[in-house]
Design brief:
The structure is a homodimer.
Chain A lengths: L11 H11 L9 E3 L6 E6 L2 E11 L10 H18 L3 E11 L5 H17 L3 E9 L5 E10 L15 E5 L17 H10 L2 E6 L4 H12 L2 E5 L7 H9 L6 H7 L6 E5 L4 H11 L5 E8 L4 E5 L2 E4 L12
Parallel strand pairs in A: 4-5, 9-12
Antiparallel strand pairs in A: 1-2, 2-3, 3-6, 4-6, 7-10, 7-11, 8-10, 9-11, 12-13
Helix pairs in contact in A: 2-3, 2-4, 6-7
Chain lengths: 323, 323
């Protein structure tokens, strides 16, 4: 669930309640491996492949504005779902694109949007196999449906974190609105490398902000987490935005709560942490890797900084001071 | 592509041009069997199953109104795609539901909508495996993504019609707005029976109206068709609506041009026509079956009635008199 960029979004709590109310008692089939609640659903496909299924939507004025480059909006439309496929340890399959067109849509804009989507599809060996077009009296929307592929039983879920696991994130966090939210590269190769070389216990992608997403991972795994402020990889954009006055959020709060980082968050046995750091540096010398905390038994998220250990509130990190 | 129910829809011609402009040079993969342009895309999945992929969208005010029963709107949302899976000769697989919520959405309405979708999923052994929720400043929309299953090489395409084939439709046509558009049963079992017992050359479902859909099937097959007015199965609703003055369309025009019939249209070798009629009567005694014409070489659609044979225009059948 992506955060709304404008005011008055579906708040996380209300959204979680809503989804839970709607998705209880969903009909399954014998080939359903995993239904709703993770980055992708999983369906049995063949003896050597499971199928990942994911949909997502973007609405003008919520996930992008009319002023933004339509080619980049097209990139984002597809990359958001590739990030979910990456979060399961999968590889890209096929994609379908459904668009709702306002009466005054611009053909040039739409062609640039498709150009962006095709560029990403080519880059990630994704087949664009169709979709649907309809009218809307509201703003432009697109809804993307994607399949991914993963070896049977090898998809990494949110629910596998174990007490004393080390918690890792790729890249840097916060300030995505400065541009990264339109212009990121989904962590497909990193995720495939991770699942090939290490036993990853739980993984998800960061779309709602670290604090919120980590809470979901912990909830799915029935554990808690302690995160260490000093080790959070605060992005340069989060610092610049704070310094320039574009946001009143201190950089640490931005790293914890800004949405649309599209980085990976995962846990693995702490005995593997050093080996992972060494191997990552070899494999991805240009991509930061941070061990940001550990999994604990008590089902809360704690933040550890200069002032000690405190429970991270469910909402509102803006009051947090940079440590 | 469903027709808009309100005024000012995307006209068929403009929509076809738009789709063609956007979907040229789409990236494919070695596992892509069929990309855009048919009722579903086809992707290789396992040695004994191909995967059908389809998406669709419905927007309040276009495909349904706020006054309509949300349970039935939920039925329609899923059944529209099941009708596309049926059109390929496939069976239902899994479905994901993406919804765009206006700020003033009603939780009761949404729960009834989901109730409707779950009912259809249970009835047709379809797994509801997730989806996505977002906000919109416009009207409510939903976008449905569905997988279907079919034996490799057994999917029936639009492009297989051959000159001198007999053309068949199931059920009756026209007047769907009187209620059937919300309350139809997709022709899954009929389609599976057809492909099991007969060599169906080409098939599609009727969503835009017979004349328009048949034109698409003929275009895909590089053939034309001659249809016989006396044999068109005009629905009771089309006749009632004409008689009551709810529409100015004569019943024949309604059967040719009304959208959302969600019946099957197919062709097979004319030598099989009588055997099909006999076997159908045994298998589906309550469902009308009509042989409505034949496939011809010249790439036009002709209508044969009391006044002779004439080319059916691309747009506007309202002037046609009931024969």
């Amino acid at each position: 669930m992506a955060p709304a960029l404008d005011g008055n979004p579906l708040t996380m709590n209300r959204e979680v309640e809503l989804i839970e109310a709607l998705t209880c008692d969903l009909p399954h089939r014998p080939d359903t491996v995993l239904g709703s609640g993770d980055d992708c659903a999983i369906v049995k496909s063949s003896p050597d492949r499971d199928l990942l299924l994911k949909t997502d939507a973007m609405v003008e004025g919520i996930h992008f504005t009319a002023q933004e480059d339509p080619v980049k909006v097209g990139h984002k439309a597809i990359n958001r779902l590739l990030s979910d496929v990456a979060a399961m340890g999968g590889e890209a399959g096929s994609v379908l694109v459904t668009i709702g067109l306002p009466r005054d849509f611009q053909m040039d804009w739409l062609q640039s949007f498709y150009k962006g989507m095709k560029e990403v599809a080519l880059r990630h060996h994704l087949a664009l196999v169709g979709g649907e077009t309809t009218h809307t009296s509201g703003p432009f929307f697109c809804s993307i449906a994607m399949t991914g592929l993963v070896s049977p039983g090898k998809a990494v879920l949110r629910s596998g974190a174990r007490v004393r696991d080390a918690i890792f994130v790729s890249g840097t966090l916060g300030g995505s609105l400065a541009g990264k939210h339109l212009d990121f590269d989904p962590r497909l190769k990193e995720s495939q490398w991770l699942t090939k070389h290490f036993e990853i216990h739980a993984m998800m992608d960061l779309s709602d902000g670290l604090a919120s997403d980590l809470r979901q991972l912990c909830h799915a795994s029935q554990v808690g987490a302690e995160i260490w402020a000093d080790y959070l990889p605060v992005s340069r954009d989060a610092r610049l935005r704070a310094r320039s006055g574009k946001t009143s959020k201190p950089p640490l709060a931005a790293a914890l709560s800004d949405g649309e980082d599209f980085e990976l968050l995962w846990t693995l046995d702490r005995s593997q942490a050093v080996a992972l750091k060494d191997a990552w540096k070899e494999a991805f010398p240009d991509t930061p890797l941070s061990c940001i905390g550990k999994v604990i038994e008590q089902p809360e998220i704690y933040l550890k900084d200069d002032q000690g250990l405190r429970i991270l509130p469910h909402h509102g990190y803006d009051h947090l001071q940079q440590s």
